[in-house]
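Exercise 7. Given the encoded structure of a 116-residue chain, write a plausible sequence.
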């Protein structure tokens, strides 16, 4: 969040984030001459488990990560910036390494938060 007396900006991953990452991967695959798509190689979603791990202690209403996400996805307080990426071929070293990098895309940016 960037804040001053007149504005606040929140950063969060949502389904559009997932679709955008898939589009980037699809385009890279095309550039490399592949006929595969992101969906052929990876499962990408919002990492709801990490969101629940970070914020779940602040609510007694939700007992699971999925329940917490659905209950709070439009909240101004609980924001997920984490992607969950899994390589569909568990025997692919390069695929698993790529999934790990994609899961940590937000590490490219310094993200801090402040609660008043």
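Solution.
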């Amino acid at each position: 969040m960037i804040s001053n007396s007149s504005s606040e900006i929140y950063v969060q991953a949502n389904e559009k984030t997932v679709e955008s990452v898939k589009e980037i991967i699809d385009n890279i695959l095309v550039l490399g001459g592949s006929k595969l798509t992101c969906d052929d190689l990876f499962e990408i979603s919002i990492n709801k488990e990490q969101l629940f791990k970070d914020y779940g202690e602040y609510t007694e209403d939700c007992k699971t990560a999925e329940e917490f996400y659905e209950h709070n996805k439009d909240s101004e307080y609980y924001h997920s910036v984490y992607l969950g990426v899994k390589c569909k071929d568990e025997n692919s070293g390069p695929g698993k390494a790529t999934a790990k990098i994609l899961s940590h895309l937000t590490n490219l940016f310094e993200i801090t938060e402040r609660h008043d």
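Remark. Residues 2-108 form one domain. Students should compare their own answers with the one above.
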